[in-house]
Amino acid sequence: MTYVVTDNCIQCKYTDCVDVCPVDCFYEGANFLVINPDECIDCDDCVEACPAGAIFNEDDLPEDKKHFLEINEELSQIWLQITDQKDPLPDATKWDGVEGKLKYLIKEAPEN
Q1: Residue 106 counted as domain residue
Q2: pTM above the 0.90 mark?
Q3: Alpha helices, DSSP H only, in 14-91?
Q4: Positive or negative, the Cα torsion across 15, 17, 25, 5?
């Protein structure tokens, strides 16, 4: 079992979850965070910490968000690990709760 970051994180990228994660299982893209399912210890700390309500237990994923398990697994293999909290994206509050954000997901690994 693992936790999964879903679409409400896209274009927001709050990192409060990163700050509370005891095993540093978050990975960062340009406009989204993911959890590496092989590293997650199912502690539940990230769920309460996420101001966007974008993180779900794998067993509680709504049917229309199940594809995010694969997205988290795939992108955690190419993105860099994030271990420190950062500011959210500039328009995070504007994007929080917007439907249909998957089309804005930038999958390419960010340049360093």
Answers
A1: no
A2: yes
A3: 16-20, 45-49, 67-75
A4: negative
**Which pLDDT tens digit goes with each residue over 3-62?**
999 999 999 999 999 999 999 999 999 999 999 999 999 999 999 999 999 999 999 999
Domain count along the chain: 1
List the one residue out of 67, 83, 52, 51 whose CA is nearest residue 4.
Answer: 67
> For 74, phi and psi rounded to 5 degrees?
-65, -50
Written as six digits, the tokens of 76 are 């955690």
Instruction: DSSP letter for 99, please.
Output: S
75 neighbors 34 (Cβ within 8 angstroms): yes
Q: Encode burial over 21-33: b for 16+ CB neighbours within 10 A, e otherwise.
A: beeebbbbbebbb
- Asked whether residue 96 is assigned to any structural domain, the reply reads no
